Amino acid sequence: MTAPVRDATAPTTPASTAPTLREAFHQPKSVWAIAFAATVSFMGIGLVDPILPAISSQLDATPSQAMLLFTSYLFITAIAMFFTSWFASRIGVKRTLLVGLILVVVFAALCSFSGSVTEIIGLRAGWGLGNALFISTALAAIVGATAGPSGGAIMLYETALGIGMALGPLLGGLLGSVSWRAPFAGTAVLMAIGFIAIMVLLKHEDRPAPVSPVAALKALSNPALRTLALTAVLYNFGFFTLLAYSPFPLEAAAAARGGEFGAMGIGGVFFGWGVALAITSVFVAPILTRRIGLVPTLLGTLGALAVLMLVLSLFHTSMTGLVVLIVIGGLLLGIMNTALTETVMEATDLPRSVASASYSGVRFLGGAVAPAVAGPLAAATTAGAPYLLATGTLVLAMLMLVLGRKHLASVGQHHLSDVEEAAAITAGDEV
């Protein structure tokens, strides 16, 4: 997230005042415009998943090459996250949103016309840059544009996030059943509508406070933030092993039974995954963190994810087993995303925008590495090996958290306000 003068993570209403549905949905048109664009942006995360096998077969690419669509996207997103707050402080929130959106429109449209997987990999890098600029700024913009309590606007943003995470794979499956090019074209059209809406409707914006271009990099010298960032790198390796690699075992399991899973089938599975992730991130994670604490929630969820990945490595040939375990994985990932980001927000006295940018930049690197490793590893060994490796990285994440726990003494000593907690939920799911 960026660092506006009016911090998007700072409460503008009393902590005890929970936003009502009327406050959430009775918003200016500018807020709705940002929420629509945010929904489409979050849809773009899972949109590619259902069409990976189709891209692999129709463009004569290996699964390893197809999964690099995630790697290029996430790697550029990670690098850009370190500098988005500085960029927005130079040109303003609205211009940053518009630059991000136009980059997504251009590169998504070019992807739909590509003739090789290598071209798409390169274009997805530009898409990642645009998405980083937009996502990192959208929460600050939606809070700044609201006319009433910020909690209502953030609730609307959470709703957009959940809808986008769930509908992305489903839309990818629906359009992908027509052509692998259609999801890219569809994203470009929807983001273009979002661009026009924000350009016309977003009038007022808070001027961001000046931010050093290296503020997010320097923040990693903080031992608490460094501990959580390294934990996040290892965790995100597991996250994106599940998200980017699983379509291929699903397709293989269906083929072994004499059928074809197809883009629609994969989209349906990851629609369930997205719904599960959205539900637990918004409703379950806050309950767990308040009842048993942030660090115990993190350790317990990481342990459950490690067990899940181990079971996936054993039952990767079972189509039913894969479907059930992927959806269960969504439940656990939703808890982990929110709890980890809330821990980052509590663990240091750094400005939350800087801490969030630093943490996000590091964690996305883990997501970028996972698809690049999973494909070659499966080709060289067995289809279950990537899940087994992910099990190991999740265990290492637990070890990293235990070893660095001494730096997290301040975590859990105070609870975030309702608005701050909502901001943590949205930031945690900005994958």
TrEMBL record:
Q: Which SUPFAM superfamilies match?
A: MFS general substrate transporter
For the keyword Transmembrane helix, the answer is: yes
CDD domains from the xrefs?
A: MFS_YfmO_like
Localization terms from the record: Cell membrane
Q: Just give the chief location class.
A: membrane
The signal peptide here is none
Q: Which key words tag this protein in UniProt?
A: Membrane, Transmembrane, Transmembrane helix
Domain Major facilitator superfamily (MFS) profile, by residue range, is 30-409
PANTHER family documented for this protein: MULTIDRUG EFFLUX PROTEIN YFMO
Give the protein name, as stated in the record: Arabinose efflux permease family protein
Species in which this protein is naturally found: Brachybacterium faecium (strain ATCC 43885 / DSM 4810 / JCM 11609 / LMG 19847 / NBRC 14762 / NCIMB 9860 / 6-10)
Lineage, opening ranks = Bacteria, Bacillati, Actinomycetota, Actinomycetes, Micrococcales
